[in-house]
Amino acid sequence: KLGQALNSALKKLARSSTVDEATIKEIVRDIQRALLQADVNVKLVLQLTKQIQKRALEEEPPAGVSKKEHIIKIVYEELTKFLGTEAKPLEIKHKPTVILTVGIQGSGKTTSVAKLARYLQKRGYKVGVVCSDTWRPGAYYQLRQLLDPFGIEVFGDPEEKDAVKLAREGVEHFREKGVDVIIVDSAGRHKEEKGLIEEMRQISEAIKPHEVILVIDGTIGQQAYNQAMAFKEATPIGSIIVTKLDGSAKGGGALSAVAATGAPIKFIGTGERIDDLEPFDPKRFVSRLLGLGDI
Amino acid sequence: MFGKLREKLKKFTKQVEEKIEEEEKAVEAPMAGEEIQKAVQESTETEGEKPGFLGRLLQVEIKEKDIEDALDELEIELLEADVALETVEALREKIKEKLVGRKVRIGTNKGKIIEEALKEAILEILTPEKKIDLLQMIKSKEDKPFVIAFVGFNGSGKTTTIAKLAHWLKKNGFSVVIAASDTFRAGAIEQLEEHAKRVGVKVIKHDYGADPAAVAYDAIQHAKARGIDVVLIDTAGRNELNRNLMDEMKKIARVTKPDLVIFVGDSLGGNAVVEQAKQFNEAVRIDGVILTKLDADARGGAALSISHAIGAPILFVGVGQGYEDLRPFDEKWFVERIFGED
């Protein structure tokens, strides 16, 4: 609905013979609305659109390019620049590479861990998964059910209550087995749960991961920035996975997480099946945010 | 919990108040103190009849331009509190409706008038057409069991909420059985069984991959045979665009004919949650809403947006991971929380 509104605004612009300041402001306002409805952080939206407006007013479009086309180009440039223009792949350099995943309750960590394990296995790596979630009932069984069919081993103990101990022993276990990648799943937590944030910091210190991945729900709203910030303060977030982008969510909250952590998005989750994990593509993501489809 | 939202609304009140006071000064200026006294007296005397010339002079009318700037600011603040864009716009219209053209007598407490208008606008957005008294509804149903189906997006907190609600119902003297109708997500059945063991209720389950409607049907038969009061049906998380899963949900509703369908929504969600709620409401009529994760410093905007979008009341809010962390919700409480002193 909003994508259409944006499109019609841009069409209106195309029809008008001259593009004056008022028209540009109108377009900028439409873009603002599109981004806000996509759950992009309000402050970020204001900051981005200010920059877009400035460039649209000052820059002359190159020969052969209409003012309208030029404005769309500016919007794309500013947004993709923000997201890191090129895709940054996950690097497996050490043996074993230790990866820790963190995130809010229900954001999709456990499913993403299984997806990532399978993704790496398909690329020829030997993978071990550690379940350090001592909080949510059924967490260990969930991983086993997802990974047993692929012969990926899951280390865990539903009876153990010490998450830090589990993580440490799990990493040690797989180190001895000589796997290439160890992925540690952790319990969901949010920034107000100080005890759990501290536990996460301790896990991170105990296993010294090469990469900490923040898993963030594509439907998250304005709290994304503050939550991501709290995670970053406790652990060195190195990359982001945005989940649940198969629904109508546009994932704008993830942009705020990028802004808060300075970490790039590396994958997106697009469904519940284990293969529903795609490397991140900034251009497609921006199209989605603006509701314009692939262009 | 809603401190931020409260701050913003207070700010709005103050801004509008100042604007009106400016206009008051313009009215008062030509008159000396004594004359004002006299004028006030006269106008009081004529009250109830046609207001005299001076009576008209002594009141200012709130104009659109007085509140426009403050509304623009409030709009941003509401968006930051996760109130969905369309709800923000509806709220804006309502506030305007209530304030523009309103005549305020000089000397009256304008802050109070503005705040009351804000409260009314929010309460109107929040108050659904019908209310639900859950305990009363369960008690008054003649043929047991009372069946509640839970639906929602992945990871919104359905399973944990069901455990909390089972605990709450038990505390209120009802017997409960849970149907493990999420036969899809790995670990779902084990998770539910562990919860049920801890709160002391039985789970009716089949294997993974079984027909969710059949599991729910069995649970209802089990409850009937044993005179159990309430059946809670846990369903798999699904997204609003997945046709097959939405059809599956409709089938569960058809087969079990629930007395109540509850949508479980994540209060950390933004505009997307409103879209979800609408689509779910279209597929199976939603009777009530439970908002989860309100303890995660959520700004509470989702409460406003969901109520506005689907017109169903919010029954409970989840405020933690413990079984006690489920709090009955009513609109007045919410508005009091927003406006009340901390």
Question: What descriptive keywords fit this protein?
Answer:
heterodimer, A: 295 residues, alpha/beta, 11 helices, 8 strands, B: 342 residues, Four Helix Bundle (Hemerythrin (Met), subunit A), Rossmann fold, 2 domains, 8-stranded mixed beta sheet, two-stranded antiparallel sheet, 14 helices, 10 strands
Helices and strands in order, then pairings?
The complex is a heterodimer of chains A (295) and B (342).
Chain A lengths: L1 H14 L5 H17 L4 H17 L8 H17 L13 E6 L6 H14 L4 E5 L7 H9 L5 E3 L7 H15 L3 E5 L8 H14 L3 E7 L6 H11 L2 E7 L8 H10 L3 E5 L7 E3 L2 H9 L5
Parallel strand pairs in A: 1-4, 1-5, 2-3, 2-4, 5-6, 6-7
Antiparallel strand pairs in A: 7-8
Chain B lengths: L2 H26 L4 H13 L7 H5 L1 E3 L2 H17 L4 H15 L3 E3 L4 H17 L7 H7 L5 E7 L5 H14 L4 E6 L6 H12 L2 E3 L7 H15 L3 E6 L7 H14 L3 E7 L4 H13 L4 E5 L8 H10 L3 E5 L7 E3 L2 H9 L3
Parallel strand pairs in B: 3-6, 3-7, 4-5, 4-6, 7-8, 8-9
Antiparallel strand pairs in B: 1-2, 9-10
Helix pairs in contact in B: 1-4, 1-6, 4-5, 5-6, 6-14, 8-9, 10-11, 12-13
What does this structure look like?
The complex is a heterodimer of chains A (295) and B (342). With 295 residues, chain A is an alpha/beta fold. Chain A has helices at residues 2-15, 21-37, 42-58, 67-83, 109-122, 139-147, 163-177, 194-207, 224-234, 252-261, 282-290; strands at residues 97-102, 127-131, 153-155, 181-185, 211-217, 237-243, 265-269, 277-279. An eight-stranded mixed β-sheet of chain A has the order 3-2-4-1-5-6-7-8, with helices on both faces. The two termini of chain A are 18 Å apart. Chain B is an alpha/beta fold and 342 residues long. Chain B has two domains: 3-126, SRP54, nucleotide-binding domain (Four Helix Bundle (Hemerythrin (Met), subunit A)); 134-339, P-loop containing nucleotide triphosphate hydrolases (Rossmann fold, 3-Layer(aba) Sandwich). Helices cover 55% and strands 14% of the residues of chain B. Chain B is built from 14 helices and ten strands. An eight-stranded mixed β-sheet of chain B has the order 5-4-6-3-7-8-9-10, sandwiched between helices. Chain B is elongated. The mean pLDDT of chain B is 87.
